[in-house]
Write a structure and sequence with these properties.
Helix content is about 30%, strand content about 20%. It is of the alpha/beta class. The radius of gyration is 20 Å and the shape is globular. The structure holds iron/sulfur cluster (SF4). Iron/sulfur cluster binds next to loops.
């Protein structure tokens, strides 16, 4: 089923001058589908997802484990591990559909125009290369060579609060927080327009998490890149992001400016998520959990996928799937009653 156009990041007019025009969003994802194909058949992990990211915008993506948020992140850069397969949709970035680019064209864009900070920095760093060698390799692969590459590698470490001496360090000699700073330096090495941050602080303790997020926010303010921030920490996401997209069982169910979502979430699932999360102020009130568990993506329920857990469900919810309706001002919701 075709989905309507995604809610745009601002309340302004639609893209000017077509895809990639000056008024167009930096990234426009339309009807993205990702399948996992195994011996037991096909599982649709991301189902007809559409959203946009504006220039300089920080979009958060939230949802319970297995809702498809990290799969979307990896699909955007086409770094999904098999057996995952992008089976439909468009990913328009600066006017070009990334899903239709051949591998050399995509390689030329990765790191230079869009990059990624992965969940575990150890996964992203090569254990048999020093930090300096990895930074220089990335720079040299994109034409920054010799003394300029060495100088830029030192600048990048300074940018993320590390010392020039760390250029000679091996990944295993660094703490988790330092490795994640190196991951950020790598992602920013070529000053990309869009950085995808896939749970960049998951493996870190709270203090280091706060430091890394502050580094990212400072860099975003200084360098002006757009970012997609994926985390399980909804409270922090609402504090940091411009807009937030909520995923449920492979579908995008609500997107809205963070302030609007804090003040009045429209989708019953978002309302349940927000009510279940401890606040950043750390009060010790007991939080009501959403009853039940997300459905298996092998056989999602018909109609609205949230209906078995939704206290407001009516007959229509059990048979008719709600499409994401634009509410203006960068907001949209997929609920018959919202
Ligand atoms: Fe609940 Fe129905 Fe809205 Fe789904 S469509 S969230 S079941 S009210």
């Amino acid at each position: 089923m075709a989905e309507p156009a995604p809610p745009t990041p601002s309340a302004g007019p639609g893209p000017a001058g077509g895809p990639g025009g000056p008024g167009a969003p930096l990234l426009s994802v339309r009807g993205l589908c990702v399948d996992y194909v195994g011996e037991e058949g096909l599982v649709r992990a991301v189902d007809r997802v559409s959203f946009e990211v504006g220039r300089g915008e920080l979009l958060g993506i939230a949802g319970e484990s297995g809702c498809g948020k990290s799969t979307v992140a990896q699909a955007l850069l086409r770094v999904l591990p098999p057996p995952a397969l992008i089976s439909g949709g468009q990913v328009l970035f600066e006017g070009r559909d990334l899903l239709r680019l051949d591998e050399p064209a995509l390689r030329a864009l990765r790191w230079r125009r869009l990059s990624m900070v992965f969940q575990g920095a150890l996964d992203a760093l090569n254990p048999v290369l020093t930090v300096g060698a990895q930074l220089r390799d990335t720079l040299e692969a994109h034409g920054v060579r010799g003394a300029r590459a060495r100088q830029r590698a030192a600048e990048l470490l300074a940018l993320v609060g590390l010392l020039p001496a760390h250029l000679a360090s091996w990944p295993h000699q660094l703490s988790g927080g330092m490795r994640q700073r190196v991951g950020i330096a790598l992602a920013l090495a070529l000053e990309p327009a869009l950085v995808v941050l896939d749970e960049p602080t998951t493996a870190l303790d709270v203090v280091v998490e706060r430091e890394i997020l502050q580094v990212l926010l400072d860099l975003k303010a200084r360098l002006g890149f757009s970012a997609i921030f994926i985390t399980h920490d909804l409270a922090r996401m609402l504090q940091l992001c411009d807009r937030v997209a909520i995923f449920y069982a492979g579908r995008l169910v609500e997107v809205a400016p963070a302030a609007a979502l804090r003040a009045g979430p429209r989708h019953p699932y978002t309302q349940g998520l927000l009510a279940a999360y401890p606040s950043l102020q750390g009060d010790d009130q007991e939080r009501p959990a959403i009853p039940g568990a997300p459905p298996s993506l092998r056989s999602p329920p018909p109609g609205c996928r949230f209906h078995p857990r939704c206290a407001l469900a009516v007959e229509r919810c059990r048979s008719e799937e709600p499409a994401l309706r634009s509410l203006g001002a960068g907001s949209g919701v997929a609920c018959h009653l919202a």
